[in-house]
Amino acid sequence: MSHSTTPPHPPGTTVRDMRIEDCEAVAAVRVRGWQHAYRGLLPQPYLDRMDIAEETGLRRRHFEERGETVNVVAEEPDGTVTGWACVGPHRAEDHGLPGCELYAIYILPEHIGTGTGRALLAELTARAAAAGHPDMALWVLRENAPARRFYERAGFRPDGAEDTFLAGGTLVNEVRYVRPLTAPNVRPLTPPAAG
């Protein structure tokens, strides 16, 4: 098993709770993140129609109605938001899993590979574990090899569940990944010696 030698946060970057005034910056991260990550995987007209102003309104509504959802952002010293991630209860009622679901993690394209995504994911997995969640699930596009490698390096594994959704009239396939957040209850192979 290999471990990254990259610091947990890019130099000068902090991960903090999202605030309502971050909605426009988060919308830009999400739109630009989708347009970059899903180029060639989703219909280009669908990606081209994504609008930061419209997305800002959606982010604001989601933020105000967030319930148990946790939103965090990565921020540079000058206040620039470079990434966003959120986690919460499983969205599907028939998920069949304990734990929680990572809904989203997006980085500005020019910050991919800087450790920003790892920092956001580390923050949310630590919070979920501290809240007592035994595992974290997420959905990723089947054809999104870079994202799948990112999650696999972070300890997530596909569990066999698959789903589809419509994007711009095209059916898109997703696979579910799951990562344990707590150590399994390991018992010794042999009983302890009688004393």
How many helices? The count is 5
- Amino- and carboxy-terminal Cα gap: 38 Å
Task: Specify Rg, calculated over alpha carbons.
Answer: 18 Å
The backbone outline, from C-alpha atoms, is globular
Low-confidence stretches: 1-7
Give the tally of β-strands: 7
Which CATH architecture of the domain at 14-134 would you pick? 3-Layer(aba) Sandwich
Q: CATH first level of the domain at 14-134: which class?
A: Alpha Beta
Helix content: 25-40%
Beta-strand fraction estimate: 25-35%
- Along the chain, the helix and strand elements come as EHHHEEEHEHEE
**Average pLDDT across residues?**
88
CATH topology of the domain at 14-134: Aminopeptidase
Strand count, sense and barrel status of the largest sheet are:
7 strands, mixed
Question: What is the CATH superfamily of the domain at 14-134?
Answer: Gcn5-related N-acetyltransferase (GNAT)
By secondary-structure content and strand pairing, the structural class works out as: alpha+beta
For the biggest β-sheet, the strand order reads: 1-2-3-4-5-7-6
